[in-house]
Amino acid sequence: MRTFPAEESAALGGPAWLSTRRAAAFERLGGISQPTDEAEVWRYSPIGRLDLDAHRPVAAPGHGAALDDALALADEFGAGPRAIIHNGRIALLERRGLPETVVFAPASSLETEPSGFGEVVGRDDFFVALNDSFIPDAITLDIPARVTLDEPVVIVHWCDGGTGDGPAPTTLLRSLTRVGEDAEARVIEVIAGPADAGSGLVVPVGEMVVGDRGRLSYVMVQDLSHDTWHLARLGATVGRDGTLKSFTAGLGGAYDRCRVDAAAVGQGSSTELTTVYLGSGDQIHDVRTLQDHVAGKTTSDLLCKGAVAERSRSIYTGLIRVRNGAARSDAMQTNHNLVLDASAHADSVPNLDIEENDVRCSHASSVGPVDEDQRYYLESRGISPDRAERLIVLGFFDDIVERSPVPSAAGPLRRRIGQRLAGLLGRGGESDG
Amino acid sequence: MTATGTLKVSGLHAEAGGAEILHGVDLEVAAGEVHVVMGPNGSGKSTLAHALMGRPGPTVTAGSITIDGTELAGLPSWRRARAGLYLALQHPIEVPGVRLAAVLTEALRETAGDADRVATSLDAEADAIGFDRRFLDRALNVDLSGGERKRNEILQMGVLRPRFAVLDEIDSGLDIDALRSVARRIELATSEWGLGVLAVTHFRRLLQELRADRVHVMVGGRIVAEGGPELADELDTSGYGAYSA
């Protein structure tokens, strides 16, 4: 860890609580070993290849042209309140009609530590500790009880990424969203950077706390360069009769990992987790989910769909845990993988851990090429094999993208996926004789 | 409009799963005609339908399938479709995320048809057979009942306007009103653009609604009797047993 020294953490500044928090985390970090793929939660992953000595915390940027790119992204996803975060520092924040009682602010501007900070994702994860130690700042959104936000809040994290010289930059991102009792919000986080960025590491940690009867719709889109590692950790707790709808999309990244833990802690609460990924080249997409039923009569529904092309691969592992006391819970988990090339590969590993009797759990998973019957059906209408495959694969993604709990994210996602697929499908050309 | 042309099946042998199912089938359907192939379960009717369209599975081992002399037997199904053949599937397939209009636009674009008329044509065809217009925006066959899927097959046929349509058990899953409107649409197509129809079924019910020019009885992978619609009445009293070997 010589490239992540204590002095660098201390030099990040900010209010006293934040500095103290970083220092404590740095102490903690020293006692946690960097994970290897021997740990169950990192199985199948290339995490053993990560050499942190070849990385260092990213420098504070000058906010130049990158800001324009980030603003264009924000515009694409919504016209409401937005924050642009550049290399982990808040570069711009516009409230655009947010009710005054809503806190939408950099953590560094708060006099005291916001409630719940760090409590959702816990303290034992190495990369959370790294994030805690070196975050320049965090974006916090706190919606008080009974307030409903009209427009989605768009947060764009722009990461400059590597230039190829010296240690690869490591960007630590942090967000905390609290939705109060009977309050409602929609949030989109976009994690992106220059498409040609060299090797780098981006470590986002996002925490969501949904109060009793609160409703949060959350979308996270990762569209970093294909040389960047992305190790994301999202955690949520949902109070009594509250609802979380989360949608995550993994498009970019060399190794793109997204772990989402959603805990239904209040009776009658529900979580809906949707995930999509698209791999090409040598990408690895790695999705880990936890549907944690803590209280009774809770429901969770997970749908994860992805496609791997060329030499890319994907890993999906998901756990449904129904704890003692979570009787009459209902959990579903579905993972579908399209394997578009012979050299691509997908692993799908569902798991159940049930401590209660009176529960309903179901899971389904599939891994394979485009369905022969579907292809035949379209071909029987006079559509050539290349075109039929293209329609089916686009449909496979459309089917999940249209489930985005924040509708304004669906168009931008569809465009990005469509552009990627245009280059990946029908490469053999088409004979039209 | 007087269309001409013939779908001709000669000496068709096909096997599936290592066993021969069709032992030499001969049929000839002229433009504008309606032919019905009746037979008990397991007589090879569905194999015939799929062998004509070229579904992977049944393998044609001998014989020929032509439209106006152009051989289709060795062609992939999309080329048969472009030659003017259509199959309404017995079990239409769900294709998540792929909208009906997208499929038909693509199909017409590739067959040099008029892709621009898909939207208006879809509405008209839906109304003609009582297919709820709201379903037009759905992904192909997703969340549709068995009957709606069958109507959807006829709706697609109406938009694509093939020269010859093979209808595999189009009557199953349709209630009597739906079957009646579907039958009217098919009959209208025979005069509207000279559609030739080969409908495969094991229920006589279809013949009570659909005016047939010829009826063929298929048993054990062979056509064992042919005649006018009155043949169905004979079947009603004697059953298929009379034709067993």
Write structural notes for this entry:
The complex is a heterodimer of chains A (433) and B (245). Chain A is α/β, with parallel strands linked by helices. Chain A folds into two domains: 6-266, no CATH class; 372-433, no CATH class. In chain A, 19% of the residues lie in helices and 39% in strands. Chain A has seven helices and 20 strands. In chain A, the strands form two sheets. In chain A, strands 1, 4, 5, 7, 9, 11, 13, 15, 17 and 19 form a ten-stranded mixed β-sheet that branches. In chain A, strands 3-2-6-8-10-12-14-16-18-20 form a ten-stranded mixed β-sheet, covered by helices on one side. Chain A is globular and about 70 Å long. In chain A, 54% of the residues are buried. The model of chain A is unreliable at 428-433 (pLDDT under 50). Chain B has 245 residues and is an alpha/beta fold. Chain B has one domain (6-240): Rossmann fold. In chain B, 34% of the residues lie in helices and 30% in strands. Chain B is built from eight helices and twelve strands. Chain B has a six-stranded mixed β-sheet, with helices on both faces. Chain B is globular, with a radius of gyration of 17 Å. Chain A binds chain B through residues 372-374, 376-385, 387-388, 391-392, 394-400, 402, 432, and chain B through 53-56, 76-78, 81-82, 86-87, 89, 92-99, 102-104, 106-107, 110-111, 139-140, 156, 160.
